[in-house]
Design a protein that fits this description.
single chain, alpha+beta, 2 domains, eight-stranded antiparallel β-sheet, three-stranded antiparallel β-sheet, 2 helices, 13 strands, globular, PSD-A, PS_Dcarbxylase, zymogen, lyase
Length: 202
């Protein structure tokens, strides 16, 4: 299965056309261009996912790069998506979309501290937020949702083309004692639980 939206083909098409033409001139360059087209199609894959258990799911595939408190005391978990990771993002919890806000900005590497000034889309759902951050090569964030949409836990909410980052700002009742992951840990969108409240605290 491939990521939603007809735009996904626009990235692979130029390389595929160039590869077909180059095959007439140079098999080496033709094969290289076709391989690039194949990689782009593979990059836009969208596998089915099943949550591993109750709690807050990671919104993205990749490695945990941020686990800290925000200025207002809420816990924020960020995941850096490398070029080989699936870039379809998913809802960490069930909820209703209240706002989808786009902010222009730069395109610094998503793991860099300066990425706080990068282009981003903030999806606000009830008592949590997902922040989608464009990286050095990620020039397009494609939200799938709009205000008023009801989301189930693990639903697809967006896709970011090429390297980037996705953060979840957890509901206020979660704290560091509920955190199940640490920096550098590999996680899978819609499957890995990053935070869970203990039964006696719920």
């Amino acid at each position: 299965m491939l990521a939603r939206g007809s735009w996904k083909w626009t990235y692979a098409l130029p390389a595929a056309v160039a590869g077909a033409a180059l095959l007439l001139v140079s098999s080496l360059w033709g094969v290289a261009a076709l391989a690039l087209a194949g990689f782009v199609v593979w990059f836009h894959r969208d596998p089915e996912r099943t949550p591993e258990g109750r709690g807050v799911l990671t919104p993205a595939d990749g490695k945990v790069s941020v686990a800290r408190e925000t200025d207002d005391g809420r816990l924020r978990v960020g995941v850096f998506m490398n070029v080989h990771d699936v870039h379809v993002n998913r809802a960490p919890l069930a909820g209703t979309v209240e706002a989808v806000e786009h902010r222009d900005g730069g395109h610094r590497p998503a793991f860099d501290k300066e990425s706080e000034r990068n282009e981003r889309v903030r999806v606000t759902c009830d008592d949590y937020e997902v922040v989608l951050i464009a990286g050095a090569f990620a020039r397009r964030i494609h939200p799938y949702v709009e205000p008023g949409d009801d989301l189930a836990r693990g639903d697809r909410i967006s896709h970011i083309s090429f390297g980037s980052r996705a953060d979840v700002v957890l509901p206020r009742e979660y704290d560091r004692d509920d955190l199940l992951v640490e920096n550098g840990e590999k996680v899978s969108a819609g499957e890995t639980v990053v935070a869970r409240r203990s039964p006696n605290r719920e």
